[in-house]
Structure prediction request, 386 residues.
Amino acid sequence: MPENSRRKPPIAPGEAHGDDRRLLLLALNRAEFLKPVEKWKLLSMTGESLELFRLDRTDLEHLLGRRVLTSTGWNVRELLSGAERDMRTLTRGAIGCTFNGDDDFPPMRGNDYDPPLVLFFRGTLPDQRHALIGVVGTRQPTGAGRTAAYRLGLELAGAGAAVVSGLALGIDSEAHRGSVDGGGTAVGVLGNGLDSVHPASSAGLARDVLKGGGVLFSEYPPETPPRRHHFPARNRIISGLAQVVVVVQAPERSGALITADYALDQGKELVVHRAGLHCSRCRGTSGLAECGARVIDGAADVLGADVLGADPIGSDEPGASRFPRDAVSHQEPQPGRSLAELVAMELRGEASFHNGRFVRRRGDVPGRGGRAVGMRDGASGRRDVG
Prediction:
């Protein structure tokens, strides 16, 4: 990926949009017949200049080393016109965009091969101090799988970690719902333009994600419909954003296994939930476990720390996650408190459940009440869109 020294904030409502590089990236982003790695190759070869659009189809074939069909969409006038339309959309306020190389572009560690050129977004860009955990799985989980995904989202929210998923039916939606119900931050990555939500049944959940301070991402410009090939490409962004990817339940041909492959290619830790080991819809997850993926029971196993007992790691700033990005464990799982153990503590009077959070009782500390797990104080100063 070409090194870019120009650092600018994302396009915000009302901001001037005369930047040639941004127009270039938006236009090239619309050339869907090009793979992301090919787009970066063209940018590198042309010095990230609008001169790129002086190339004809023969030039393109020479640089890419492959044939380019006339019907694929290398219509320069149309691409630039679409990019200018995107610029106008971005200044209206409902949808924002951050460009690869901007300060606020979300880190995608390990995805140096084919990261997106741009990310359109609605909501609040993720706080880069917080851990992001990918949670994916089948659209048709068992009851146990739904429960496991919801509880995992709830626990991760309580620990201050954000859940990254695709807002699809089944595991994705359950994990996001758990995160929202736990007062956490959810990150949804869509395979269509952000002027709509697919599937439509997830529209209410998407609104709740935004109300809770979360964000919706897409590399596809507004008014782009969901297409079959968008979803595997979307999955590389889910894994790219996450430090750890959890596959809760997946059959042999589940799209979640594509996310798993991307995670491994990007050097991310891939784990499977115990709920995905023994059922007719679990052959994909059980296969991952047989190949060495670590099996987890809850958020404590993912984060590698005691969900209730740990003090903030690495930062005392208000709003900092108790488990920042670099604190996510990639070691063997350490003993932690599962949801069942937290409930047992509540029954013993050692903790209480309040506003979606488990709170440790601290009656032995004068002048202090219980401490809410993962409670965030103050504003982060991040920009909201939508």
